Amino acid sequence: MSYEKKGYDRVAKEFGQVVNMSADELRDWLTTDESRSVGWTRKGESESVGHQSGRRIVDILGKDPSDLSDADYDHMNKVVGYCRRHLAQRPGRNVASSRWRYSLMNWGHDPLKGRGELDD
């Protein structure tokens, strides 16, 4: 997908709103058993899609915005969509140790931080 300036700006803004973990926080999280315990894994692979996404987010967060590619923006847009869908499915209780939270954290969003609601 090719983005025009307005599209880049929108995706960057939404990504910045929803990804509330720093690159270091996310990198550390991805080393935990909890991080590896959640998510869907494609046939023939050993790492979940969300865990792969987390590694990609760490890479994106480490880049200068002027160095982001269309593929980076595509992934950033995918992250926003995933987080929007899953934030709408918040469980009633026990959020702190829920698979729901762990999955979102693989995608760079810790719902216990309280930030990450997207503007319409």
UniProtKB/TrEMBL annotation:
This is DNA-binding protein. Pfam families: DUF3140. PANTHER family: DNA-BINDING PROTEIN, POSSIBLE DNA-BINDING PROTEIN.
